[in-house]
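Work Package 3 (structural annotation) set out to generate three-dimensional models for the target panel prioritized at the project kickoff. During this period the team completed the workflow that converts sequence records into discrete structure tokens, so that structures can be stored uniformly alongside our sequence database. As a representative example, we reproduce one entry of 171 residues exactly as it appears in the project archive.
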Amino acid sequence: MNTSTAIESAPRYWSEEPSNRPDRARIRARIGGLHCSLCTGTIEKALGRQPGVDKVAVSLTHEQALIEYDPRIARPEDLLETLKDIGYTISDPRKLRPFEEEEAALVREGRRFLAAVGCSLAAIALVAHPEGFLSTLLSVVAFASLIVFVFVVLRARGLVPALGGAVGVAA
């Protein structure tokens, strides 16, 4: 296999877009690990310092970067390597998860979070003034909430690991 075939068959983590200038190229890359406007500024600064890069626009909302560059000087692979070097991940912009999947994942995580908070609040309430029967109940609730918490946290990995973790803590 020659080098040009290897390059053509390698996965590309960017999509090409038309540029307003004929001597420039423009790519769009999906970036993972963006958290705030400081992240967008860091990326714009890091890419903007690369030779041949004219413009960089990063969207925090869409987790994407739009990069305009001189293809005679810069290569998309090198530009995206810069993003990896400063701690961000790159994924194929053409392979996005459907909105329904994202929403379902958020709902599941929200339920898990609420269950964990509920168990924690129950334990905290009993810790406030345990007397007599409540001191025994405190131990039982704290132990049970720990088991439930382990189950809820591990549930994303599947039912078997969640049950195994809960049984392991109980043992």
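The first strand starts at residue 15 and ends at 17.
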